[in-house]
Amino acid sequence: MLGHGRSVDSDAFIIGGYSWRVKCYLSLDHPIEKGSYVDARLEFSLLDKASSGEPAGRSYTSQGQRHTFLNKNDKCGYERFIGKSELASSIYVKDDSLWIRCDVTVLMQTRTDPAAVDALAVPPSDLACHLGSLLDNKVGGDVTFKPGNKQRLEFPASMGNKSSSSAADAADDRSGSTSTIAAEASTGWHVLKVKGYTQSRGVLGPGKCIESSSFTVGVHSWCIKYYPDGFDRDSKEWISVYLALCRPESRDDAVKALFKISLLDQDGKPVVAHMFQSMEARILSVFGSSQLMGFRHFIKRYGVLERSSYLKDDSFSIGCEVTVINGVSRVAAKNQFVTVPPSDLNKELRVLLLEGQGADVTFEVEGEHFSAHRSILAARSSVFKAELFGPMQEKTGACVQVGDMEPKVFRAMLLFIYTDSLPAMGAGEKMAMAQHLLVAADRYDLKRLKLVCEDMLCNHINRRTAAAMLVLADLHGCHGLKEACFAFLSSREHVKATMATKDYEHLRSSCPLLHDELVASLAPDVFEGNKIKRSLSCFS
Q1: pTM of whole model > 0.70?
Q2: How far, in Å, CA of 275 to CA of 226, rounded?
């Protein structure tokens, strides 16, 4: 018999960079650096071997408790885990043995990472530029205009004199003016993505916050303060979110700002039911009691956030829009007698496509026919230019067969060629259409459409799609999308979940060089023999 105060040790196991053992209590087996400490949450469970080693119900599972270990000899455990008589009469002792499981969560230092710079920069519309070059290059021109003799319209000298005196004076008398009072404002938008929600919940306690990276609006520096356990004890069941002025431009600045804080859905759009905004301009200053402005009861954790679709892969996002009021100015301006509307070139070309007036080429896609204009296609795509006006022209004929493409994809591509915009799509079909359009854009050298599709796909990378997205990006030379996939798969949890998909098996078997590149880009502890390290066991 061991006697009081003695224990049986398990084999050592590594979690959070420290070595641990399970005894009748938990003890650190690796010294902690002087002046340092380790925060951990512990949970012990009696295991039921008859049910594949699952915990034997909550009656025999300790409530997870947090403990700060200061040195090697620091311990944490339960003196009264289970009574001897209760254990002896239970079904959990089999072959004179029992199993105890210990779950250890090392609470690493919470941090906020600056948002990655967008790998993609979608350029502005180049539709007008392409059509302008079409006029200069005279590609596909089918009509010639010959100006006639120029005529000059002249006015009598007497009329000229009148216009320089009384007529001009009369015009000046009729001219009016207006003055405008305008508030000068700067607006910015920042997104705070909370990853590992369950790991931060219940760790800091009420009143403790995690700050976002700073962002600049109106020359001032701001940050979002996220309170996972509430701003105070009255809001401990809630998540609290506040906006803070980190640094005004000068020490004497009093900054007026309007702000709006929103929970974001999976598409990055504000959720109306969880959108809060200041009702009037608030004076925010880094000095004084009005430093923080926000919402104590932003969203309730249990029963609301944790049951919603906004919490996905243990992550959710918060958006904050800040409008800084820089001042009020008075601007005098003359009356505007003529209002020039914005360009409607894309609308007119859309009508031209839909009505088919003047169309001189037809495409057949899976039995469906599409009429178009050779000149416009050639101006927008070097591939179409070669097919319709180059050496390939004789082979195409009046009706061009298009294979390996669905009619709806070709229709969307044509609309983009004519208008630089995509058709309206439901949330469920955006990702699939973006993938097909990316392939079509690469095929016909539509550079801007390809970037638009890349940008759309970057916002739909998750554990189910990451492997397929990576293969697509590599196949079509989409460097931004490829980097976004690598960034997503830099997380051990994401890689582990992605490896369970069929798309990952396809990646590994069909794209070995890409797979090797992925492995090389990850931290050494993420892969071991091309497999994720499985969950650690306390027992050998």
Answers
A1: no
A2: 15
Domain ranges of the chain: 13-106, 183-331
- Distance, in Å, from the CA atom of 223 to the CA atom of 231, rounded to the nearest integer, reads 16
Tell me the torsion sign for CA atoms 444, 445, 451, 454.
Answer: positive
> Into which CATH architecture does domain 183-331 fall?
Sandwich (2.60)
The single-letter DSSP state of residue 264 is E
Exposed, middle or buried: residue 372 (CB in 10 Å: 0-12, 13-18, 19+)? buried
**Do the domains spanning 13-106 and 183-331 agree at the CATH topology level?**
yes
- Classify domain 13-106 by CATH number: 2.60.210.10
Strands 399-402 and 361-365, sheet pairing:
parallel
> Alpha-carbon Rg of the chain, whole angstroms?
34
Least confident of 30-44, 167-181, 322-336: 167-181
The pLDDT of residue 328 is: 62
Tokens of 64: 């997870």
Q: What is the pLDDT of residue 334?
A: 61
β 38-48/100-106 pair status: antiparallel
Q: Is 241 helix (H, G, I), strand (E, B) or coil?
A: strand
Q: How far apart are the first and last CA of the chain?
A: 23
Q: How far apart, in whole angstroms, are the C-alpha atoms of residue 242 and residue 197?
A: 18
Q: Model confidence over 515-530: pLDDT tens digits?
A: 998 888 775 555 544 4
